[in-house]
UniProtKB/TrEMBL annotation, chain A:
This is Carrier domain-containing protein. Residues 23-85 form the Carrier domain. SUPFAM superfamilies: ACP-like (SSF47336). Pfam families: PP-binding (PF00550). It comes from Streptomyces finlayi.
Automatic annotation (TrEMBL), chain B:
Belongs to the thiolase-like superfamily. Beta-ketoacyl-ACP synthases family. One of its GO terms (biological process) is fatty acid biosynthetic process. Residues 4-400 form the Ketosynthase family 3 (KS3) domain. InterPro entries: Beta-ketoacyl_synthase, Ketoacyl_synth_AS, Ketoacyl_synth_C, Ketoacyl_synth_N, PKS_Beta-ketoAc_synthase_dom, Thiolase-like. Gene3D superfamilies: 3.40.47.10. Keywords: Acyltransferase, Transferase. GO terms for molecular function: 3-oxoacyl-[acyl-carrier-protein] synthase activity. It holds the Pfam family ketoacyl-synt. The keyword Plastid does not apply. It comes from the Bacteria. The keyword Acyltransferase applies. This is 3-oxoacyl-[acyl-carrier-protein] synthase 2. It comes from Streptomyces finlayi.
Length: 93, 401
């Protein structure tokens, strides 16, 4: 068996795709959220169902996009708000 | 153990390099077909021969959090799901507080460890996955089984190195016999194919880069392997009450420790012999009652020499001997449950499988090792041995159901 998918998240170059596309892809692909639940109005805490997932999402976005996020960014925002915040950080990076 | 207390086996799940299910694994063993191959991920190491489980999928791995599972937990969950299906047990309906989980492992989630160590070194502490410890800790394969199937009785993960699977069977038997549970999910699981673990065994001179050839004159080490085996054990009255099909009974168990050397077996196999004799006594059987033996048979020069001599000593009637490691390699902590499962399949089909890789029996061994093709037998009782680094010895006696 190959090691788990998370091992593959280490990209050598930063992802240049649209932030919503990237985050949605992670929620469905890596974190196995039901695609029907992934709406911009959904709270991130409903999409990432435990603290492990929250921490892992922050680590993954640091890997993929080079942006540093706090757990609070993930705990208090909807998906749409979270994507906007990531976009702000990407613009600054 | 008195027959009234001897637990029954109602389900077997196997995931090995031969395939992700019981049938493909049994087919390889029954045909004496080796599954070892040079492993591309280990290609630049001194030893790269391994038995890696092919990529597979299973519905049990389609739940939130599954993508973070270490391979060892994936193997354990798939084997356990299979075993439960065969046993006809539906976790949605059982009283989970009466279900125990006993797992055996030589290593833990070493893929998770390798990844985390690499990231720590290259990117710093903030890059280490939140899932590092849930993948790495040795109890987590069992915890995942408990979580996934709602087993809320006692759960224990134990290690006696390469004897762990058989030790798990003995521990589960005691939980059942003392009334602490009605059902025990007993799983040996191992996913050791990281560069570091393979290197560790290479440095000990334990591995073959040629082939697994148990009891062969030219044997030169074991082939390291992935795999998992789960047996569903039940109190006999519990299985009878629900009308379950009984595949086998675990009628004897014995264990001992060499206290001789951390990795070398006692040269006369005294500790191993005590475990074999203890298992026979526990089953209230004499050596002549054993119809065939699924040997530990690692294919290392030393193990097979010492084990061969002790089997000759204890069993003068020369029952047929087989080693599953010729086909599947050495799955370490999983070997005990995988080989117990294969022994039950052999008892129920009335054959002793051949020892894959064996072409010329070591002339110093006075044993009837089955080679070439499976041999028919009507004998209803078999014995399975497991020995581990650390001097751990564990032996199970199984009777057809």
């Amino acid at each position: 068996m190959t090691p788990w998918k998370g091992d593959m998240s280490t990209s050598a170059q930063l992802d240049t795709r649209d932030t919503l596309e990237i985050v949605t892809g992670l929620l469905v692909g890596k974190f196995e959220a039901d695609p029907a639940d992934v709406r911009e109005s959904a709270p991130m805490t409903a999409l990432l169902i435990d603290s492990l997932m929250v921490v892992e999402m922050a680590i993954t976005l640091q890997d993929e996009l080079g942006v540093k996020l706090d757990e609070e960014d993930l705990r208090d925002l909807t998906l749409g708000e979270f994507v906007s915040r990531v976009d702000e950080r990407r613009a600054r990076a | 153990m008195t027959s009234a207390l001897a637990p029954v086996v109602t389900g077997i799940g196997l995931v090995t390099a031969a395939g992700p299910d019981r049938d493909s694994t049994w087919a390889a063993v029954r045909e004496g077909r080796s599954t070892a191959a040079p492993d591309p991920r280990l290609h630049d190491l001194p030893v790269s021969l391994a038995c890696r489980v092919p990529e597979f999928d299973h519905p049990v791995l389609h739940h939130r959090g599954s993508s973070a599972l270490d391979p060892v937990a994936r193997l354990a969950l798939a084997a356990t799901a299979q075993a439960l299906e065969q046993a006809g047990l539906d976790p949605a309906e059982w009283d989970g507080s009466r279900v125990a989980v006993v797992t055996g492992h030589g290593t833990g989630g070493v893929h998770s460890e390798a990844t985390a160590a690499e990231r720590l070194a290259e990117r710093g502490p903030g890059s280490v996955s939140a899932y590092f410890l849930t993948g790495y800790l040795i109890n987590m394969a069992g915890a995942n089984i408990a979580l996934r199937f709602g087993a809320t009785g006692p759960a224990v993960a134990l290690s006696t190195a390469c004897a762990s699977g058989t030790t798990a069977l003995g521990t589960a038997r005691d939980l059942l016999a003392t009334g602490q549970c009605d059902i025990a999910l007993v799983c040996g699981a191992e996913s050791p194919l990281t560069r570091l673990i393979v290197t560790g065994f290479t440095q000990l001179g334990a591995l073959s880069n040629h082939s697994s050839r148990p009891f062969d004159a030219e044997r030169d080490g074991f082939v390291i392997a992935e795999g998992a085996g789960t047996l569903v054990l039940e109190r006999p009255e519990h299985a009878a009450a629900r009308g379950a099909q009984v595949l086998a009974r675990l009628i004897g168990y014995g264990a001992s420790t060499d206290a001789h050397h951390l990795v070398a077996p006692h040269p006369e196999g005294r500790g191993a012999e005590r475990a074999v004799r203890a298992a026979l006594a526990d089953a209230s059987l004499g050596p002549e009652d054993i119809g065939h033996i699924n040997a530990h048979g690692t294919s290392t020069p030393r193990n097979d020499e010492v084990e061969g001599a002790l089997l000759h000593r204890v069993f003068p009637h020369r029952p047929p001997v087989t080693s599953s490691k010729g086909a599947l390699g050495h799955t370490m902590g999983a070997a005990g449950t995988i080989e117990a499962g294969l022994t039950i399949l052999a008892l129920n089909e009335g054959v002793v499988p051949p020892t894959a890789g064996l072409t010329e029996l070591d002339k110093s061994l006075d044993l009837d090792v089955v080679m070439g093709a499976a041999r028919a037998t009507a004998a209803p009782i078999a014995l399975s041995t497991s020995f581990g680094f650390g001097g751990h010895n564990a032996v199970a006696v199984l009777a057809r159901g």
